[in-house]
Amino acid sequence: MKINLRTVLLLVGVSLIVSGSYALAHTDVTAEQARELIDSTDDLIVIDVREPSEYSDTGGHIPGALNYPWYSGVFHAQYGELPMHSPVLVVCGSGSRSNRAADFLDSEGFSMVYDMLRGMRAWIWETETGVDADIKYGGGTGEPDGPYQIATAEDLILLGETPEDYDKHFILTADIDLDPNLPGRKVFDRAVIAPDINDVELDFQGTPFTGVFDGNGYMISHLTIQGQGCLGLFGKLESGVNVKNLGVVDVNITDSGLYVGGLVGENKGSISVCYSTGVVNGGRSVGGLVGYNSNNGDITNCSSNCMVSGFENIGGLLGHNFSGRVTRCFSTGFVTGFEDVGGLVGDNDAHVNDSLWDDNDANIIDSFWDMETSTLPYSEGGTGKTTAEMQTLSTFLEAGWDFVGETENGTEDIWSICEGTNYPRFVWQIAAGDFVCPDGITIDDFSFFMEHWLDDNCDLSNGYCQGTDLDQSGTVDVNDLEIFFENWPAER
To answer: 106 — phi, psi (to 5°)?
Structure first.
């Protein structure tokens, strides 16, 4: 297999950095030894740190095991409920998450902690399926340190139907497909979350979303809506809201009214590190990501590749911006309309203290649109570029965008790009398999490598991998990875 070393280095930086050594106090046990512990220890507590969908699937879980998911923060929120001096057995899918959870319990002073090596894949005895009926959504408490977990279409639809939870914290724990042809899905006639419930009144009538929604690097696909007014995954986000790290993919939204976006109809909150693709069609204030951005609404590090159409205030990313702000965003989709139409933003009213800024770029900052794919040479704010320029790293670095491999613009490593091939993408899109540079390793291969090879060949507690130079410094020799992938099994 041909290796693109830049891609490998990026993936190593994103996913393979192993933390320094730990002072271990827990005991590693095989599945057989874990079974003996369960049979012989009356007060043993079994903690399964997988996500609820893994815990309750057909493979099941150890009977009586408590589900404290590691990735979504529930483990950290609930570990304090465990008796510190009772024996605790920690289990996951392969042994990686359970090792980290066992280390954490060690650091918190738990005296008898056991980690089951190789996880549930090594468990050959009885299992249970299903989850506790008292668990809401996919788990969690809705608090900042234990957000409700949204793992299925049913969870997402339930959230939309529960306005009393709109002020809570949520985290997506899996990709969700809302294809109306799938069981339990539908063509929505309103926004999924925080919809406008009155088609007659001009202003928003309903309960806006006022909480936090962390997409966690996952995507919601095939959202289909045919309705009137404030349409998108979210109908309205109120001030103080934070929606982040989320992709809405292949949306198909048709509306004859106001405020239509692939992600949000009307925004007064904060939207960051989100993207949209698909088709968005409406009347007025229509955008690929957001329809109407007002009252200091903030859109940062976002993108849209939607085909956008409508009558008035139509933009590739944002339809109408009224005293809001757009920073380090871009759009690439085809845009068409009749009045106030722009490649990035259709109409921009930049009000501050009841005064209108003369400079439309004062609140559309370091943002771009593709003049060729949008077919528009103009926008109310932002800078138009050719497709070639939009696929060139320097375009964005010079505007202060934070990319992998550079530190001058920040160290969060938000963006990556394959120059000359594609537009910028979020780093978590790479990890999710949505974006791979040509001739690089495939994400399926890389995910399998992370899931199986590392778990089988590495003792991540001390940073050692068989046959590599991965050591306690937490670094890995790229030559080792190159050799590994060049000899990747043909059956993969």
So the answer is: -55, -50
Cα dihedral 111, 117, 118, 121 sign? negative
Which residue has 């069981």 as its token pair? Answer: 183
Q: What phi, psi does 142 have (nearest 5°)?
A: 85, 0
The DSSP 8-state label assigned to residue 288 in this structure reads S
Q: Are 417 and 423 in contact (CB under 8 A)?
A: yes
Dist. CA 176–CA 479, nearest whole Å: 37
Question: Residues 204, 234: contact at Cβ < 8 Å?
Answer: no
Is pTM beyond 0.85 here? Answer: no
Instruction: Please give the DSSP secondary-structure letter assigned to residue 147.
Output: P
Residue pair 232/187 in contact (Cβ under 8 Å)? The answer is no
3-26 per-position pLDDT tens digit: 333 333 333 333 333 333 334 579
Handedness of CA 32, 36, 38, 43 (dihedral sign): negative
The values of phi and psi at residue 79, to 5°, are -60, -30
CA separation for the pair 124, 32 (Å, rounded): 9
Ordered strands of the 290-294 beta sheet: 234-237, 264-267, 290-294, 318-322, 345-349
Q: Which domains does the chain have, with CATH numbers?
A: 22-122 (3.40.250.10), 175-390 (2.160.20.110), 445-486 (no CATH)
Residue holding tokens 């993919």?
Answer: 249
Q: How many CB atoms lie within 10 A of CB 234?
A: 29
